[in-house]
Structures are given as C-alpha cells and as structure tokens.
C-alpha cells in the first residue's frame, strides 16, 4: 500500500497514490460500517487521544467512532475546561500528553499551523482535525470519497466550491486534493470572501453563481464562518442568500446530475436552501458524514501501519 506519512497534517504533502490508498481502504470500512458487526482490530492496543481546542460536533464524534470501531482506547480531552484555560502553552500540553504514550493524537485548533507545531513535539502520529483556516484533510478525503462514489472518478470533473472561501480550511484542503487528482476547480463567491491571490492557485474565480455553476458536476457549499470574520464581509444574510445561497434556480445552472455537498454545520436559508439540502436526489450531505467515519478509520489504520513498519 502506498502510504509514507508519519502524520496527516494536510492534503498538501500527500501524493496522488497516497490519496487513492486512503480512499480505497476507506471503501472497505464503508462496508464494515454498514454490516451488523462493526469491529476490526487495526488499532487494537493503541491509544487515541482527541484534543479539540475548538468546538466540533461531527468531526469529534466521527474520529471517536472510527477509533472505537478499530479497537483503540479512545480518550477525549475536554480542552475548553483543561489547563489551556489556565495559560499552559500548547507545547506544555503536548509534552504532558506525550508522557502518557498515546499512539494517535487527533487535534483541532483555532490557529493555522498549531497542529504542525504540535506534531514536531510529540511521538504520536498526529491527525489534523482542522487548524484555523489552513487545512482540514479528513474533510477533503471524505468529500473525495463521496464524489468518487457518486461520479465514479475524481479526475476531469468540474467542481464549484462556493461561498466563504477566505475563512475555509475545507476549501483549502479540497483545492489541494482536487487539483492533485486533476479536476477543474471553480471558486464562486463575493470578492470579499475570495482571497486576492486565489487566481494563482490554478483555479477559476467567479463572482456570479450562474457563471460559476454552469455545467458543474459537483456543487460544494461552504458555511459562512462568522467566528473568523472581524468585519463586514457581507452586506446582510438576506442579500447574501439572494446572490450566493444555493436554491433550485441557481442549481439549475449546474449539470442535470450535479451533486450538492456541504461540510456542515449548515446555515439553512443563508448559504443553502433547506429543501435542496434535504433533497435525496441531489444532496449527498448525509453520505459525507457516513464517509467521514470510514475515511478516518482508513487514515488512522494507515498511520498505525506505517509506524509499525518504521519501528520494525
Ligand atoms: N466543520 C467544518 C470545519 O470545521 C466546516 C465548518 O465549520 O464550516 O471547518
């Protein structure tokens, strides 16, 4: 199997064959997760610690289930209530954890780059569960698996990533991944929410939904990340919905069999119409959540295998 990473910090360092390896292994875990007996042994005897310095519902639950299904001892550190609040530095926290000999550390942090820093200081394999606006690799992998299952491939697709690109780690990881897999990427959103250098990322930039969605195979909506905004990026939510919210009329510009995605949590009536989100013929949002568990199982399994090979 092609997988040579000590950590999963982002999509940027991965080679295309490593991405394919994760997705192929994840397929086997999709089958396991749909069966009556959901246990495998890949992480048996290993300790997984989840450290979420930022709120999360689905990602934390997904990593927890993934670890439990593979037989790991899984611990969730309540970081909001922990010594971080008492002023302990990230590095001190890492060293304390290190002394407990975890094998896998799953980390979410509000600062871009914090997870990479931590990975340099600990012995465990570190998985980035989202750092600031930098990367969210397992989200892009679960999106890729969802797209591959719906469309049968990842190359030569037109993927429109729409909305708050500026604050989105989901967008960045997806741009890396889809670019490596040779899909055509369009970023669609108001100029205030698309970083000025985006045109140099090998993507098309559109400020109009009709143009950006024209003929697209995949329409990926992003949440307006208000917690990362420090000023007036949009005139009002109503105006934003009118121009950029995905409704039936705007979706009508995409390919007739286009799928609709959203990483969650959704703001219904802001970036997406609730009826579109719930339309089982177009929306694969629930499938994304399902794929999330399988992809995280695959990623942790591969990291654990690589560690065993290196130690041998
Ligand atoms: N859940 C994703 C993230 O953590 C997307 C979002 O929050 O909008 O980045």
Description of the structure:
The chain is built from eleven helices and nine strands. Helix 2 (58-69) links the parallel strand 1 (47-52) and strand 2. The strands form two sheets. It has a five-stranded parallel β-sheet with strand order 7-6-5-8-9. A four-stranded parallel β-sheet has the order 2-1-3-4, with helices on both faces. By secondary structure, it is of the alpha/beta class. The protein has two domains: 7-135 and 290-307, Rossmann fold, CATH 3.40.50.1370; 137-286, 3-Layer(aba) Sandwich (Rossmann fold). It has helices at residues 16-34, 58-69, 90-98, 114-121, 137-151, 169-180, 209-213, 237-244, 248-251, 274-278, 285-311, and strands at 47-52, 73-77, 104-109, 125-131, 158-162, 184-188, 204-206, 218-221, 259-261. The two termini are 17 Å apart. Helix 1 (16-34) packs across helix 11 (285-311). The model has no long low-confidence stretch (mean pLDDT 94). Bound molecules: aspartic acid. It comes from Palleronia abyssalis. Keywords: Pyrimidine biosynthesis, Transferase. Residues 157-302 form the Aspartate/ornithine carbamoyltransferase Asp/Orn-binding domain.
């Amino acid at each position: 199997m092609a997988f040579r990473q000590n950590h999963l910090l982002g999509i940027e360092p991965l080679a295309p064959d490593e991405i394919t390896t994760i997705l192929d292994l994840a397929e086997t875990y999709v089958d396991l997760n749909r069966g009556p007996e959901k246990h495998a042994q890949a992480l048996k005897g290993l300790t997984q610690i989840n450290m979420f310095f930022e709120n999360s519902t689905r990602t934390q639950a997904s990593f927890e289930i993934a670890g439990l299904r593979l037989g790991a001892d899984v611990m969730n550190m309540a970081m909001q209530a922990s010594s971080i609040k008492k002023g302990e530095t990230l590095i001190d926290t890492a060293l304390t954890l290190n002394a407990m000999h975890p094998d896998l550390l799953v980390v979410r942090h509000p600062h871009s780059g914090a997870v990479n820093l931590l990975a340099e200081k600990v012995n465990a394999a570190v998985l980035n569960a989202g750092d600031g606006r930098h990367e969210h690799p397992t989200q892009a992998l679960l999106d890729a698996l969802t797209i591959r299952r719906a469309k049968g491939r990842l190359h030569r697709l037109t993927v429109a990533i729409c909305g708050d690109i500026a604050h989105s780690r989901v967008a960045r990881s997806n741009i890396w991944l889809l670019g490596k897999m040779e899909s055509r990427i369009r970023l669609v959103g108001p100029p205030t929410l698309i970083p000025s250098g985006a045109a140099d990322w090998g993507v098309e930039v559109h400020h109009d939904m009709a143009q950006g969605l024209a003929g697209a195979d995949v329409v990926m909506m992003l949440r307006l990340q208000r917690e990362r905004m420090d000023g007036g990026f949009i005139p009002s939510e109503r105006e934003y919905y009118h121009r950029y919210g995905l409704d039936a009329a705007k979706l009508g510009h995409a390919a007739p069999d286009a799928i609709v995605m959203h990483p969650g949590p959704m703001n219904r009536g802001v970036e997406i119409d609730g009826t579109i989100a719930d339309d089982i013929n177009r929306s694969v949002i629930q499938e994304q959540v399902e794929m999330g568990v399988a992809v995280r199982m695959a990623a942790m399994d591969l990291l654990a295998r690589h560690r065993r090979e290196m130690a041998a």
